[in-house]
Specification:
Length: 142
């Protein structure tokens, strides 16, 4: 395998998101009695679902990306909770499984998506005259 051509930066966020999903799933379903459990859960709920979807959509902004990821994650968390509540099927286990699926499925496909960096600027090349014209005056003097 040619390791020089391997872009490791492309795999960092998918790895972080998958490990975070596994960690929160183990912490919740194995009923860990650790002081790290609330921190793992907070990290997952506040960042992971939104970051997974924003990376698939192609957002690669530093500060704005984090802000959007947190806002999008909280919106997804709220939507899943309300949907489970209104359907009469509320359980934290179902909510966690849905959020884990929302995080894992886009994350598995994200490294293989072809990147489109957005619209390219239109470059117009004009011919510049060697001797620029003198500006015309408004009133001709006689």
């Amino acid at each position: 395998m040619n390791w020089k051509g391997w872009n490791w930066k492309r795999w960092v966020w998918p790895g972080v998101l998958i490990l975070s999903t596994l960690a929160v799933s183990l912490a919740a379903f194995q009923n860990w009695q650790s002081p790290l459990r609330p921190l793992i859960t907070l990290w997952f709920m506040a960042v992971c679902p939104g970051m997974a979807l924003l990376r698939v959509f192609g957002f690669r902004l530093a500060a704005a990306g984090w802000t959007l990821a947190i806002a999008f994650s909280l919106a997804i968390d709220t939507t899943v909770g309300i949907a489970l509540l209104y359907s009469g099927r509320w359980s934290w286990q179902a909510g966690l499984v849905i959020l884990a699926a929302i995080t894992i499925i886009p994350t598995l496909f994200e490294p293989f998506l072809k990147r489109i960096e957005g619209p390219q600027p239109l470059i117009v090349v004009t011919k510049v005259p060697a001797h620029p014209r003198k500006p015309r005056s408004a009133a001709k003097s006689e």
